[in-house]
Amino acid sequence: MEVFAYQGLIGLSSAMYLWLISAGLTIIFGVLGVLNFAHGSLFMLGAYLGYTLYGLVGVPFGLAVLGSMATVAVVGAGVERGLLRPLYGLDPSYQLLLTFGLVLFVDDLAKLIWGGVFRIPPIPEWLQGSVTLFSRPYPIYNLFLIAVGLSVGVGLWWLFDRTWWGRAVRATASDREMAAALGIRTPTVFSSVFMLGSALAALGGALSTPVRPVAPGIGAAMIVQAFIITVIGGLGNLRGAFAGSLLVGVLSSYGTLWFPEFELFFIFAIMAAVLLVRPQGLFAR
Amino acid sequence: MLTVEGLVAGYGGSVVLHGVGFSVQRGEVVALLGRNGAGKTTTLRAVVGLVHVHRGSVRFRDVELVGRPPFEVARRGIAYVPDDRRIFPDLTVEENLQLARYASGREGPWDLERVYGLFPALRELRHLRGTQLSGGQQKMLALGRALMSNPELLLLDEPVEGLAPLVVRQLEQTLREIRQAGVTILLADQNLRFCRRIADRGYVLDKGTVRLGGTLQAITSDEQTVRQYLAV
Question: Rounded to whole angstroms, how far apart are CA atoms A31 and A43?
Fold first, then answer.
């Protein structure tokens, strides 16, 4: 029983990476209608930048994370304004081709700048150590991840539900023509949403640096899981992305414990099961 | 206030308007008349910037609007009420209204209190989501939402379509009040009787061109025109 609860907690913390990356993916899809293949690359870029600032330059961890988020947000704005904007109104396959091209480009760029695999910098002092949960040591860093993930959830809910920016975004998402006719600067909404999504991906990436190795290709690994999660939750649905992340994170944690050889299969099995029951995803209207 | 000249516009490759021209003076109520497919809706959408304009000019208070994005047209004081209402389904009635004021960035006499005063029913419904309203209630909300942006010119597409006769009477009264508040109105409708009661002047559209312009009285007394372009 205790093994079960403990393994669930482990899954909960890895669900938080998944949540941070799929939150951005689903917001961007919901508002812009763009399925951003390169979203995993933004996660990877966030990880590399976090690693560089914190592990190589020696910037305090918190600042390194913020710096990584800000940089990737600017990169995201550049991608949206410079590359995606000319493709709106064209067949969606152009967007897929472009963002898939970006995946390859960013991977090679990362190899060029950072080389192969890195050693992992130590966990910042104030987050080291562990507490005993269910008679087992549970890393404080994992608790920190869970706290950040939940805070982001509350923050996003507040942003979309309680601010005028959020209402303007929701209006644009449901009817961009009418939103524009009311005076909402829809191009600015698009850019800011893309920046927000990029920053969330970078947050996930930067938080992963002290515990997971960053290497070219992790972007592709993350995007597959994030796609599965957003499909499970309902494309464009934030609550769905949260529930999907928990589901995939926790269940695949049990999967690795009991059926380690089937880890990836497990995720696809969850998706298939959900889609058989609710083809539109858990939270889609 | 609004001068449209030689407007050629359409969707994608197809051209719907072949040189539409008309004008609206400050304080007037002007009607665009014509059958379905005559180009009324496209004309309104072209003014707002939602349709691609190939040639021609739309001047609003001496500023050329062609080529400007829709949000800028809205911020200059033109509010558009589409025939299919286009209420934001995720937002409550009150959020729909307030968003319009926030989005346009325009100050003026129209606020929540005044719009609720004009449409008391909306006050009762203010916490409901847009999709929970009936068609008639959505029409009220779409009109109220447009007013919240404190427009100088209000564009109404098919305002009475699908409304019960009693509701049409109420809407006439409402539009008179809006007009008395200093808002100029350009509407598109095929309901001649309604237009005759509410509009000063009208233009008859057919196949994307203006066939005739004049007072509503002159237009409706011209049997030839009514039969050829307006009779359903």
Answer: 20
B145–A contact, CB cutoff 8 A: yes
The DSSP 8-state label assigned to residue B10 in this structure reads: E
Can you give the residue ranges of every domain in chain B? 1-77+154-161+184-232, 83-151
Nearest C-alpha neighbor of B174 from the set B108, B111, B119:
B119
Domain membership of residue A207 as a residue range: 2-277
Residue B232 banded pLDDT, cuts 50, 70, 90: low
Contact A23, A240 (CB under 8 A): no
pTM across the whole model: 0.91
Q: Is the pLDDT of residue A59 over 70?
A: yes
Q: Note whether residue A284 is domain-resident.
A: no
User: Taking the CA of residue B85 as centre, how many other CA atoms within 13 Å lie in the half-sphere pointing to its CB?
Assistant: 21
Alpha carbon of A123 to those of A152, A159, A210: distances in Å?
21, 30, 5
Beta carbons of A64 and A208 less than 8 angstroms apart: no
Q: How far apart are CA A266 and CA A254, in angstroms?
A: 10
Q: Between A and B, how many CB-CB pairs are < 8 A?
A: 70
**B1-77+154-161+184-232: CATH homologous superfamily?**
P-loop containing nucleotide triphosphate hydrolases (3.40.50.300)
The amino acid present at A126, given as its one-letter code, is W
* Selected residues 201-240 of chain A with any CB under 8 Å from a CB in chain B: none
**Residue A133 covered by a domain:** yes
Interface predicted TM-score of the whole assembly (ipTM), two decimals: 0.92
Number of domains in chain A: 1
Give yes or no for B99 touching A (CB within 8 A).
Answer: yes
Predicted pLDDT at B225: 84
Strands B14-24 and B153-157, by their bridges, are: unpaired
